[in-house]
Amino acid sequence: MAEGPTMGSVFDVGGDTGEIRSYTMNFGPQHPAAHGVLRLVMEMEGETVIRIDPHIGLLHRATEKLAESKPFNHSIGYMDRLDYVSMMCNEHAYVRAIEQLVGVTPPERALWIRTMFDEVTRILNHLMWIGSNALDLGAMAVFLYAFREREELMDCYEAVSGTRMHATYYRPGGVYRDLPGKMIQYKESPWHKGKDLKRMNAWREGSMLDFLDAFSADFQHRVDDYEELLTDNRIWKQRTVDIGIVSPEQAMAWGMSGPMLRASGIEWDLRKKQPYAKYSEVDFDIPVGTRGDCYDRYLVRVAEMRQSALIIRQCVDWLRRNPGPVMIENYKVAPPKREDMKESMEALIHWFKLFTEGFSVPAGETYAAVEAPKGEFGCYMISDGANKPFRVHLRAPSFAHLASINEITRGHMLPDVVAMVGTYDLVFGEVDR
Amino acid sequence: MSQPTAQQLAEQLRARFGGRIDNVDVSHAQTTIEVPPAYLVEVCTALRDEAEFRFAQLTDLCGVDFLMFGEDEWKGSQTATATGFSRGVTGEAGPGRFDWSHHPEHPQFLRRFASVVHLLSFEHNVRLRVRSFAPEDALPVLPTLTGIWPAADWYEREAFDLYGIIYEGHPDLRRILTDYGFVGHPFRKDFPLIGNVEVRYDPDAGRVVYEPVTSVTPRVTVARVVREDSRWKTAREESADDWKDN
Predict the structure, then answer these.
(1) Which of A99, A266, A357 sits opposite B223 (nearest CB)?
(2) What is the pLDDT of residues B33-44, one digit of tens each?
(3) Is the pLDDT of residue B91 over 80?
(4) Minimal Cα distance from B220: which residue of A?
(5) How many Å lie between the alpha carbon of A366 and the closest alpha carbon of chain B?
(6) How many Cβ atoms are within 10 Å of A81's Cβ, its own excluded?
(7) What pLDDT is recorded for position B72?
(8) A2, A304, A405, B67: least surrounded by Cβ within 10 Å?
């Protein structure tokens, strides 16, 4: 594993024939285009790939086994660390599985908040993807623009949960707390002051909902910026059009989901087909591709960002009009208010029991899936009636996608493998779990 | 396209496969069938191809170890106040949580290893869970599904790696998640959470060496297992079916 990029055997240009023998080439795990810790062992013939054998597991942390040894509510934080660029969607699958087994339904406002933050997360993920994929294929600038917007959304994560990435915001029975009335602001520093600071804080004068409203209204123009840089860019099209074509049959057979499936022309989105949270009440379209190549997957993801911004606006609108509880009042599953804990003995006992022992979940099994930005993120949970899960299996979209790489990229050139690894939108936190 | 409910799907499956499937169960609006390994490939092929099912996608496959299902490794919940208690599992069976020779006693699950498949039908918008128990605990063998859904390839490698389930006929059954040269199957319930070996760089030998675990004490912090507290009983009495269907 500590080997650098080495070649098993190099060109054999000597001899009478001057033929090039096929050789084996190692890619990663330390490589900027490896998206973390992917190691590919490639059999090459010249520049053409004959066979790819991905070696994964370098980031394996046994999340599922760790979850078996802890009360249900202690493992939510681990979920953030699976697909660490779409944190809250992972939590969503996990808490939904618990909620199904326990048989509780969160209050309506919590469901709207979850819908909104799922879409914030989708934009976060796609921004990361568009930036890093463009970087892989040689376009530096997109990354800088994408991360400018990512920063704003991460501030929303921070505003609701206190952390910028690993939020642990969704809890069984609702969300951790209601949306903040005041958006966090930039503070004066030697680098940002005066007019500059005022401009940076322009959207941040009101609540977080005001901020998100302004952001999502403006966001369509930001997406225009990315498209300006890429959509008609000749180099971008040369690198992506007709590269890594996935037929609809292949997409279904290889367990693909999300943009990978939709770019191949299959109109399938769990938010529409098996709605959860409040997706049945918001209005949005499913972008679908036609050719199933890297370029279509780019277009699908860009269109999804626009749709997500529209969903966020609808959620903001509802959330502004409808205050209410964000957590169920079943104190066996959800903690009572912290203020109550100071005065009420009952509440104190509930707190103590809940955070030391957790809650027991009726025996049974369930599979809860959400449409995460990368595809279907599922949580298969078996409970034997204890306060810890008997078995948790996390169905990660990237894992299924990466499994198909040998079939999809066989016969492509070496640089196309990089385009393909980028378009899969891999995150090794969830591939290796 | 028609979208059958979980109950309708269960009836369709019963009518179509009859004796070939052991058990059809509907809970939480999800259908589960149990298929003996001998019929697994046949049933799955029919599930993929026949018009009333059309499960075009294998969404997920995972191994499960049913050892100690419904039992607690944490003893002393009754005597805790009298004698004090340790939050660690003191291992009577060594550093592991369970003994190798221990066999499950739960009547529902007589065998240890199962492979659980989740199928999805795009056409009918319905999911199905297919469970298959390996007949032998000592050497769990199941037929591979790679011939039906290529997506099974890596999932079966994962289940082999983590649980040691051998998928007969799999074209390339190698370890996938654990380290090169790893020994054992870490997700088995009798595999200790802290592992058996640890790794460090040995400056004298000039290479990375594997040694028995010493840096972590064999102690798993496990909260007390609470089971069947009264509110579930009350809830069940109050509404016999209602809460289950959520």
Answers:
(1) A357
(2) 999 999 999 999
(3) no
(4) A69
(5) 7
(6) 17
(7) 62
(8) A2
- A1:B180 CB<8 A: yes
Task: Quote ipTM for the complex.
Answer: 0.85
Q: What residues are paired with B121 via a beta bridge?
A: B126
- Strand B126-133 relative to strand B141-143: parallel, antiparallel, unpaired? unpaired
pLDDT for res B79: 42
Burial (CB count within 10 angstroms: exposed 0-12, middle 13-18, buried 19+), residue A337: middle
Interface test with B, best of A66, A252, A266 (most B CBs within 10 A): A252
Instruction: For residue A369, give the 3-state DSSP assignment.
Output: strand
The pLDDT value given to residue B132? 92
User: Which of B55, B60, B188, B246 should be substituted to probe chain A, the one whose Cβ sees the most A Cβ atoms within 10 Å?
Assistant: B60
pLDDT digits (tens, 9 = 90+) for A97-136: 999 998 889 999 999 999 999 999 999 999 999 999 998 8
Q: In whole numbers, what is the pLDDT of chain B averaged over residues? A: 78
Q: Is the predicted pLDDT of residue A159 greater than 80, yes or no?
A: yes
The distance of B162 to chain A (nearest Cα, Å) reads 10
Instruction: From chain B, pick out residues whose CB is under 8 angstroms from the CB of A69.
Output: 193, 220-222
CATH architecture label of B6-245: 2-Layer Sandwich (3.30)
Helical ranges in chain B per DSSP H: 6-17, 37-49, 80-83, 152-163, 230-238
- Decide: B40 and B119 in contact? Cβ < 8 Å: no
pTM metric for this prediction: 0.86
- Distance from the Cα of residue A189 to its chain's centroid: 33
Most confident of A223-232, B6-15, B105-114: A223-232
Per-residue pLDDT, B107: 59
Closest approach of B59 to chain A, Cα-based (Å): 5
Phi, psi of A294 (to 5 degrees): -60, -35
Cα A38 from chain centre:
18
Q: Select the residue of B28, B60, B227 nearest A378 (Cβ to Cβ).
A: B60
Confirm if B223 and B87 have CB atoms less than 8 A apart. yes
Q: How far is B58 from chain A, CA to nearest CA, in Å?
A: 6
* Pairing mode of beta strands B30-34, B126-133: parallel
Q: Give the three-state DSSP class for A393.
A: strand
- Give the separation between CA A160 and CA B14, rounded to whole angstroms: 49
A407/B69 touch (CB, cutoff 8 Å), yes or no: no
Cβ contacts of residue B77 below 8 Å, gap of 6+?
Answer: B224, B225, B226
- Residue found by looking up tokens 């050892």 in the block: B67
pLDDT of residue A369: 92
Which chain A positions have a beta carbon within 8 Å of B228's beta carbon? 360, 385
**Tens-place pLDDT, residues A248-281:** 999 999 999 999 999 999 999 999 889 998 899 9
A358/A353 Cα distance (integer angstroms): 7
